[in-house]
Amino acid sequence: MSDFPNPHEYSAIHGLMRLLSYQNNYPADGTGSHYLSAQARNLVGSQIPPIMVDYTQSLQYNLFGDYPTSADIAPSAIFTTFFTIVTIAHIAIFLINFSRGHYFWPQLGFIFYNICRVLGFGLRIQWSRDLTQTGIGITSEVFLILPTVLIASFNLILAQRIFTWRHPVGGSRRLFWYPMLTLYAIVAGVVAMTIVASSGINLYLLGEPNYARYKKVVQASSILIILYSLTSISLIGLAFFFKPTRKDENLYTYQPWWIKSFSPFYFVKKGEPQQAAISFMKRNHNHRHAIRVIAATHHHYKIVKGLSNERGDLTHNVSMLIIFITTIIILTSSILRSVVCFQARMKYDRAPIGSAVMMYVWWGALEIIVNMLYLIGRIDLRFYRPDRLPKSVRQIVTADQSLYPSEMESEEEENEKFDKHGQRISYDDTLKGDEYGNQEDDENDGFYFEGTNGLSYDDDEDNDHEGFDFDNSLKKKKLTRKPPYPYNEKEDDDSEFHF
Prior knowledge:
3 domains
């Protein structure tokens, strides 16, 4: 602290800066650094005296990670390099998967998150060379804060997929999806609020009342980020502390049975997801609209092809561990930043909890570990949900169970006979004795009033004709009409499940 002028003592530089502040309508100390930097350059030239820079810096609202100095160049360069390598690894895995037809879209979010980290630490290098470049400083701070919210959002997406795997009925309903979408929308607002509040303090000359409001907004956003980081763990807790209902256990789901391993160097065969989607052309309507879930660990090894209502013994332990560890790291860093925000101190009075070392540990080293867990743990396989079936497959119309009789069933019913009690007469009984053989069509007029002696009835009691025969023919016709579709090709394999 001795390297910076003490703003609590009345020194020469203190008097000079007070005089300049009166020219700007006496704003709150620590606000409008971007405006003051431009004003100072107009007054004294491009090279602002170091004493003015140090004094203004000591008045600034303290940041998690502090304001950079020349000592920050080396660590910032190291983490810029590390996050660049991690970004390349994520891009490589995504491109290999994409070329093989395996589309794990959340990985694009992880790529963007790492790019933000690269920009944040990279811009910090340039900012440490000249603190008067406030535009670079504000941009660097935004790109360092934003990834904390992004990675919490991506963990929530992964946790949501585990919840849907555990509770496919509840996880696929609108009652669950609408609150989740609302939560994502709220997070977008939190991100915007954090960026505006953090940058507004440095962009504008604020009075004391407005400065206090800005600080409260920053504090509120830090609390919301903490709560948001807890949602993924809470969702996993709900998934595993509440047992699946009978509807969940009986529901058939569409799992990626073609994934054979979660090994770091394993990739699915080229075009295998598309072949699986085409196989649904031979399935019925219910199969094609089954709920898509991630692969179950145990049954993943059994390679359940098609649809299954068995999801293993809840052994997604590694998957849960990945989410748990990464969430704890992000949560802790968010808590530390929130503490700094609620201290609301100027840089001169900063506490060690907001030092640059703390920032490099939590936003640098530990987040590199987080990315290694994502890469080695192969979240692109563990949390992969099968793609939606192509439109050409979803629009296929196949025979489903219906309350209405089909054309063939109606023709069979028209050829059936009934006795005077409305009971169906079997075909064998029509061939017995002279009881029915000598009757004429025109004598019956479509009605049968004969006795029930010697008659045998079918077990099927579904009879909608109530003793009427609308065909006026006693001869049994043999059905020679063939179905309009190749039904032999639409039979399920022995290994598939049947509704």
